[in-house]
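Chapter summary example.
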Amino acid sequence: MTQEPWTGPLLPSAGPRSGAAPAHGEASDASEPQALRTLIGRISLDLAVYFARHPPVRVVLLWLCFVVALSELYAHALNALFDYRQTPATVTLVTATVTVLVSTPLMTFAMINLRRLNRLRERRKLGEARFRDGIDSMADGFIIADADERVLLWNRAFVRLFPRLAPRLAPGMPLAEIAAILAEEYASSLSPAARARRAQHLVESYHRLDTPSEEAFGGRCIMAVHSRTSEGGTVSIYRDVTKRHQREAELAAAKADAEQASRAKSNFLAKMSHELRTPLNAVIGYSEILLEDAQAEGRFGMTADLTRINLAGQQLLSLVSNVLDLSKIETGRMEVDAVPIDLDGFLAEIAAIARPLAERNGNRFALAAVAGNGVMTGDAAKLRQVLSNLLSNAAKFTQGGSIELAVTRERDAAGEWIGFAVSDTGIGIGADNLARLFGDFSQADASISAKYGGTGLGLVLSQRLCWLMGGEIAAESEPGRGSCFTLRLPAAGIATQGDPALAEPLTSI
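The structure predicted for these 509 residues follows.
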């Protein structure tokens, strides 16, 4: 449908304009008083506005009547001045002369204002064309209604969004009628009462200002936002969000599929880990029995091979256990106990585990903890597992250096915290590799795996166990100078019953 041209106000209403600049053709005499120039400017603008709002023929006739009447008044005044003693020819000459003298400045003034009127009309047309081009170039549907809720203007995008409404759309149509047409055209399958309720709902939406709402029209989802103009009218913006909802649905489905695949993978790993642990335990157990028998019978040539078998089984069992624990965390089946832990006795156990690991590569181990550390609440087994992982890594990547475990207790606004810091003087880690240090099956450098071995599961498992216990683990390192891994746990501890949400950080500490 071809739209009607915009029927807004042609020119701004006349008002005081002190010091208005004279239009083209008007004399500007600097010696005139300011008040006179202001008065002339006001009269000129008022006349231009008057011309703009009335037909040109009517304006010309009014000017001619005004000129003739003024000329007659001047002629009668001159005749009265001379006591009507002039001859008819003289009277005619005086009338003609007065008419010319009076009409010339008046017609000049009229021509000046007519030229101003033409310029204003051209500016108006240019402004309307630019405004029309601007709203027609919008991708969103656009419609304006006046204070009486009657349509003034719409753009092409609005017609494209509602093609069934377009043939019946016309300037001056009430918004309520548009709502009724939309309900009739796009909800034809509903009963008359349901369509009436739908139309009333659309009418009410025009009064919910600056609040986006979404409605279904012909299988599409349209979002509408309504705002008020300074004159009390309504500006409505319509946007087709069907594709956005389709993309969101596709992303949600893809996410659900990925989560399902991840759960399936974790379940598979958990089952396989259980299946692998049984024969591994048998291998380790029989190797220990054979090792004891060989030592007892003096067959020392077999002890080295049996020791290697036992150590390989222990390493493989540790790897399987890590995979099982990680899968439990991902599937939300990992439970955390909250029981009292005597830190002095617990740290003595950790030192007994760490010292042989450190001495294996010629390192010195030190425990920096004051006596009487008190009691904390937590899961001793998982805390031991995390600290063992950190101390094992420190011992593996340090040759002839020192390894230290420092324990601190501190309090802040969130409560009391226990800090465990494992530091070493080993090879260190570059800043660019720290970001991926806690990734699954990831190590700081690919060459590390070839030289030192390992799967990259220890740190990610330690991090997630810390999250489950309500704490956090952080790393600081510098190549060639060593590393420091700091673990902070709440002294009060938390207990979980396999909630998957607790596999993420609880708070930033």
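To summarize the output: The first strand starts at residue 141 and ends at 145.
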